[in-house]
UniProtKB/TrEMBL annotation, chains A, B:
Lineage: Eukaryota, Metazoa, Chordata, Craniata, Vertebrata
Keywords, alphabetical: Cell membrane, Cell projection, Cytoplasm, Cytoplasmic vesicle, Decarboxylase, Golgi apparatus, Lipoprotein, Lyase, Membrane, Neurotransmitter biosynthesis, Palmitate, Phosphoprotein, Pyridoxal phosphate, Synapse
Subcellular location: Cytoplasm, Cytosol; Cytoplasmic vesicle; Golgi apparatus membrane; Presynaptic cell membrane
Cofactor: pyridoxal 5'-phosphate
Family: Belongs to the group II decarboxylase family.
EC number: 4.1.1.15
Protein name: Glutamate decarboxylase 2
Species of origin: Acipenser oxyrinchus oxyrinchus
Enzyme class: lyase
One Gene Ontology term, aspect cellular component: cytosol
Function: Catalyzes the production of GABA.
A molecular function GO annotation: pyridoxal phosphate binding
Subunit structure: Homodimer.
Claim: Nucleotide-binding is one of the keywords in the record: no
């Protein structure tokens, strides 16, 4: 039943992979040796089966070694798992009668693949990415979905191949996105969430998770600074949706009739956000029938912070045109510059003009956990709503985004439709815990457990420590390159968040006098270096243009695994890959 | 560091749990015995550590047995794991240097908890739910998030307690929602997805998953019947959002200027859907600024199917009022009755009046996998868009919902905002795989891998078999109760989907002549039986009123673990719990 073309690309390149991740099974056994008790044998036993076995066989072929001589000194009498997955199918697993043995062996095998991946993730000698172009991957592998089933052996092979080509987003040298890192407690929590496989809409089917969301949202509101943590909120599928919720609730607060009558019943609404704000504000406006033209972009200063006087000027202008300003979205931690808009001054403007103040703290919200850095969000307590994504700066597994709303009950009134098949009013428990009707979604994924469990495991001080460390690393980077030859900062002064924006100028560009020529060539530097980074697989960092500034690197650090040596590595790598340009 | 109040409720009730799940460690060892090779010892070794150990100690205290005498005959020389989690913290795990041993032991411990839960899930002698009222759970446990960290021992305890109070949504007697079941390959895939911890927005950071989504969406469009599977689509966070996408794209198709200008630039739009359709259509209309008043509810027949002539009448009426009909949402599998709207006749009306035809097949879409049942969706190939949730009838873990769109490029044009920091145009690979800009979300959870891997593992015929079986069970239930004393069907004729809607009349109600009195009392029967079901924890099935019909049971079957005996059990249980009412 195994397809001959199956992940053939993977097979062809297996040798390379092994070279990239030298001695994975050996590394395991070395790890196993550190156990003083029987866990060593246990891990060796795991190694002797499935993933370990195949990896070991491969290693043996290539390195002339076998698992038995890997150096593990523990007595290991557990014999090999002789379950033959090549004759088993998913129908042999639970709920099949007698499916429990095969199920446990299969899941353990998958677990071994994942454990191996995890160990590799944190091993700096492994690649961040084993990059292939879309057509290569598409042509080389059998992606096809067919009528006939594949064996569990094939399924395990799929899992291995998928992990082979996955980006190691937890790798200490992966700096590509605002969400990086792989937290072990968060991961365990996400596995548990998958296993519980339930839905957040009612207490009836998610009692524990619903209560955890209740407790955690309250705690987050306390950290924002709302009295007694009162208010409302929800975990939503990402910051863009959280921001859209905020806009939706703000509109409803001002014109509740919009729910029934639509936008035709209300005057022309306008929203305000900075030039550097996240594109989700415009996306939300388009979706909600407000229109992107009604999102007015407020000027920012050299550091990327909204200029409050420009905000006020534009609000007044809009009023003069007969428009109704209903929503200001200030950003706490912009995507590119990491700028924090001046929230107090913005709150003053919002108060004066009676406009809903939203703070998009998707990226910067995490700094509320840090006594050293939370001043950057001073004024957030005056907001009417706040987006805060624990999956970004707090390294909670994707996705985990919260929208917090100061006024209780608004979300419910705005979104509820009273579906009687779900939110029966004659249930036997307190219905206030059936929170589903305040959501835009019907079914809602359980995103809370990983955050709650990580918070338990770290305490607030643990989050604080990891956030402070990321900011320290970013300051280290800034100090290292600000006066270094070949670097130019996109803006001066120490970064407020972990974003460090800079150009790297290859030697050939450093003395080009013609400004046009210089910019033209400079704009191509970052894309080429990035391409090479991905092809070598050594590190990943993002670049983009912004306004009239040509392509520059935006370094961000949110991964607790990153260390000073990784910052050093990044600089060396940029220079290695870019010096000939 | 361990809190004395920590999950004290759990501790107090541990005895009960054990009685509910008799001999979990023994069950494990029995399972282990079935392995002919060393896997037996391996599983015993797992049992000898962590979860197994604690469970075994508990069992020993209560049953006078120890693990060593559990009956497992395999030689088991792996000694116990002597890692002491009570002195370890999350900071001792990776990426801590030397954190690999503790990490592997910790994750294996979590895995053991999950494996134990999984085995219990399919064990009919365990409870579906260990129900407690919100205040009981809130008061009895320590939910608080504090400054200080807890030990890994506490974290593991949290995991155990969370699983103790979780609803077993994969239990063969859990019939409460449209999404039930726990698929082992799907679960493994979800664990892998968590471990890969990436984001769908670009090929750059999710190459494999992006390609899998591409392949799978194409396959789904082929099954819908669109030529060569051409078109577009996306996996979204649930059916409600998928339906909202459809409405958004339909509006954009008719009035592309709405994106910039908002609803004030377009005439009054109206949407049509049946009285029995899902509430997300209204929710979407409210959010998109269309307004719920502009969702016109079309009459249904006795079976809950939309009446096409009423649809046409209302479209004509709306046009006469100067409104612009832009969207018809037909339902393939209504939430309560499981009705399939007559798609061909609806397509004719839509074509005639040039209105976008959407099919909400969130629940019924799965029947496209069945040669025996797919005729119920005849005409779906004429739709402009289709919602299809593999997390419902196909038992893919939550969440997995697809929106399929017939016209390619519309979604992109409708939603794109060209965020330059994410969708750089000078990347080195084919940018058509950066699909993030067609989404409403920015970050997007990877929902594809579980579906893709399950499809690989089952083949289309495997999905077909499990869907056919669920429909067979539902027909069995229908035949069993349609003429049984004490039952009344909410509608006659064999159900089209697995929804079986019925009233149970306790003996005292069967001969009540007064119609008002009868209805008044009947409306209270289902809620009381449901309460008792949850308190006993034996089974769960949903109830609701609909229109002028008082509370009735809506039985649905989507769980491949369910068998004839479970249907028999449900009937017995309803009668046992309801006969005194």
């Amino acid at each position: 039943m195994a397809s001959p073309r199956f992940w053939s690309f993977a097979a062809e390149n297996e040798g390379n992979t092994s070279n990239q991740n030298p001695g994975t099974p050996r590394a395991w056994c070395q790890a196993a040796q550190k156990f003083t008790g029987g866990i060593g044998s246990k891990l060796c036993a795991l190694l002797s089966t499935g993933e370990g076995e195949k990896a070991a066989n491969l290693a043996a072929k290539q390195e002339g070694s076998t698992l038995e001589t890997c150096g593990c000194k523990e007595l290991c009498t557990c014999s090999k798992n002789n379950i033959d997955f090549s004759v088993l199918y998913s129908t042999d697993l639970l709920p099949a009668s007698d499916g429990d043995t095969a199920t446990m062996a299969f899941l353990q095998e998958v677990m071994d693949i994942l454990l191996s991946y995890i160990v590799n993730t944190f091993d700096r000698s492994t690649k961040v990415i084993d990059f292939h172009y879309p057509n290569e991957l598409l042509q080389a592998n059998n992606w096809e979905l067919t009528d006939e089933p594949e064996t569990l052996d094939d399924i395990l092979l799929n899992c291995r191949s998928t992990m082979k080509y996955a980006i190691k987003t937890g790798h200490p040298r992966y700096f590509n996105q605002l969400s990086t890192g792989l937290d072990m407690v968060g991961l365990a929590a996400d596995w548990l969430t998958s296993t519980a496989n339930t839905n957040m809409f009612t207490y009836e089917i998610a009692p524990v998770f619903v209560l955890m969301e209740y407790v955690t949202l309250k705690k987050m509101r306390e950290m924002i600074g709302w009295p007694d943590g009162s208010g409302d909120g929800i975990f939503s599928p990402g910051g863009a949706i959280s921001n859209m919720y905020a806009m939706l609730v703000a509109r409803y607060k001002m014109f509740p009739e919009v729910k029934e009558k639509g936008m035709s019943a209300v005057p022309r609404l306008v929203a305000f956000t900075s030039e550097h704000s996240h594109f989700s504000i415009k996306k939300g406006a388009a979706a909600l029938g407000i229109g992107t033209d009604s999102v007015i972009l407020v000027k920012v200063d050299e550091r990327g912070k909204m200029i409050p006087s420009d905000l006020e000027r534009r609000i007044i202008e809009a009023k003069q045109k007969g428009y109704v300003p209903f929503f200001v979205s200030a950003t706490a931690g912009t995507t590119v510059y990491g700028a924090f808009d001046p929230l107090i001054a913005i709150a003053d403007v919002c108060k004066k003009h009676k406009v809903w103040m939203h703070v998009d703290g998707a990226w910067g919200g995490g700094l509320l956990m840090s006594r050293k850095h939370r001043w950057k969000l001073n004024g957030v307590e005056r907001a009417n709503s706040v987006t805060w994504n624990p999956h970004k700066m707090m390294s909670v597994p994707l996705q985990c985004s919260a929208l917090l709303v100061r006024e209780e009950g608004l979300m419910q009134n705005c979104n509820q439709m009273h579906a009687c098949y779900l939110f029966q009013q004659d249930k036997h428990y307190d219905l206030s815990y059936d929170t589903g009707d305040k959501a835009l979604q019907c079914g809602r994924h359980v995103d809370i457990f990983k955050l709650w469990l990580m918070w338990k495991a770290k305490g607030t001080i643990g989050f604080e420590a990891q956030i402070d460390k990321c900011l320290e690393l970013s300051e280290y980077l800034y100090n290292k390159i600000k006066n270094r030859e070949g670097y130019e900062m996109v803006f001066n002064e120490k970064p407020q968040h972990t974003n460090v924006c800079f150009w790297y100028l290859p030697p050939s560009l450093r003395y080009v006098e013609d400004k046009e020529e210089r910019l033209r060539r400079l704009s191509k530097v970052a894309p080429v270096i990035k391409t090479r980074m991905m092809e070598y697989g050594t590190t990943m960092v993002s670049y983009q243009p912004q306004g009239d500034k040509v392509n520059f690197f935006r370094m961000v650090i949110s991964n607790p695994a990153a260390a000073f040596e990784d910052i050093d590595f990044l600089i060396d790598e940029i220079e290695r890959l870019g010096q000939d340009l």
